[in-house]
Amino acid sequence: KNQVEQSPQSLIILEGKNCTLQCNYTVSPFSNLRWYKQDTGRGPVSLTIMTFSENTKSNGRYTATLDADTKQSSLHITASQLSDSASYICVVIVYNQGGKLIFGQGTELSVKP
Amino acid sequence: GAGVSQSPSNKVTEKGKDVELRCDPISGHTALYWYRQSLGQGLEFLIYFQGNSAPDKSGLPSDRFSAERTGGSVSTLTIQRTQQEDSAVYLCASSRRDLQNIQYFGAGTRLSVL
Fold this sequence. Notes:
The complex is a heterodimer of chains A (about 110) and B (about 110).
Chain A: E1 4-7, E2 10-14, E3 19-25, E4 30-38, E5 45-51, E6 56-59, E7 62-67, E8 72-77, E9 86-94, E10 101-103, E11 107-112
Parallel strand pairs in A: 2-11
Antiparallel strand pairs in A: 1-3, 3-8, 4-5, 4-9, 6-7, 7-8, 9-10, 9-11
Chain B: E1 5-7, E2 10-13, E3 19-24, E4 31-37, E5 43-50, E6 65-69, E7 75-79, E8 88-95, E9 104-105, E10 109-113
Parallel strand pairs in B: 2-10
Antiparallel strand pairs in B: 1-3, 3-7, 4-5, 4-8, 6-7, 8-9, 8-10
C-alpha cells in the first residue's frame, strides 16, 4: 500500500534554532518527492521537488534530502523564524498515475520567540 | 489571475443539500486537481483534469461527488445530498501541464455540513 509517514507529528522550537523533519514512504513506482509548507487557513506551497537521482536540494533556509534506497527524506530548517510556524507536508508522486499524490499527515511546527 | 482562486471560502449547509464549489486556476495552466483535507487528516486526492483528456476520477469517494471543467479553465466540484462526513476543506490546485510541474494551491473552501 502506498503510504507516506511523517515524524514528529508536532514540534516546538525556539526562534533561531535548527530542526529536521522526517518522511518515510512506501510508494511505488516512485516519481518524485515534494515538501510543502501550509500556513493555517492557506493552501500548501511547494518548497522543494526532488527526483530519484537527487540527494539534496536547498531553497533558502530549507534543505531537503532524499535517500531513495531507504525511502527516506528529511527537511532541515536552519535558523528558524517565527514565520516558519506552519504545517510541513511530505508528498510523494506515483509514477505515471495522473494526479495521484500520496500525502503525509504533516508535521506541525511552532517556532516560539 | 495571479493565483488559484476558490469560492466560496466558507460554506455551511444542511445535511442532504447539494453544494457547488468553484475553482479558477492560474491562467494558462492545463492541469487542475481537487483534494480534500479533513480535520486531522492528510490531503486526499479526488480528481485530476489534464487538458482535453478524460479526467482521472479515481479519488472520488462516492457517486455523490462529481466535477467538471468547462472550457479547460474553471472547474466546479459538486457534492449531492451532503453528509456530515463531507465536512472538510476542499483544495484546488493547478499546474502548467502535469504533475512534473509545480502545483499551485488555492486557499480552499471550508465546507461544514450540519
